[in-house]
Amino acid sequence: MGVAGCGKSSVGAAIADRYQGRLIEGDAFHPAANIAKMSAGVPLTDEDRHGWLCRLSEEVAAALAAGERPVLTCSALRKSYRDLLRQGEPGLGFVFLDLARDLAGERVAKRPGHFMPASLVESQYRTLEPPHQEPLTLAVDASLPLEAIAEQAVQWWRKANGTNPA
Ligand SMILES: Nc1ncnc2c1ncn2[C@@H]1O[C@H](COP(=O)(O)OP(=O)(O)OP(=O)(O)O)[C@@H](O)[C@H]1O
Ligand SMILES: O=C(O)[C@H](O)[C@@H](O)[C@H](O)[C@H](O)CO
To answer: Which keywords does this Swiss-Prot/TrEMBL entry list (predicted)?
Structure first.
């Protein structure tokens, strides 16, 4: 979880790779109206995100039911969004990719062919409620090298689950 440009897709893929997980790319489930809105530089509202979050919750549940290890990339910026996802799966853990605003802006501006304009980064930080004091949450410095972040996340998750490797 985290703002645009924090590395959700890159880190999610690296975690899924190390953890034999099934990557669920949250952005791929945004309805066309949400993509159109963001492309036009308009931030999403709670209402815009609601159906999308429900859909992601279903995807996680389906993966678990199929015996897979879901690794979801999802901005999950507000606590209420994370709580909605937790309702679907109480054992859900969150890796918060914590990145300074200027770096997120730089990454989004440099990323070719993506729908998210750099002008929306500011609104992502206005919406962001960092998940401090929430259960099963790891905050990571998202400016670290990709592999270091993935390694930290997988080690934390294995420990958090004790003997249960799932
Ligand atoms: N740890 C990192 N160090 C340096 N560059 C990174 C790191 N993580 C991601 N990047 C780069 O930053 C840019 C944004 O990364 P990415 O697309 O993974 O982030 P995201 O916006 O959170 O994901 P998405 O928007 O697809 O959900 C990409 O160009 C990526 O290569
Ligand atoms: O909740 C949101 O505002 C969105 O999910 C965004 O965070 C983007 O989809 C994503 O990060 C694109 O770069």
So the answer is: ATP-binding, Gluconate utilization, Kinase, Nucleotide-binding, Plasmid, Transferase
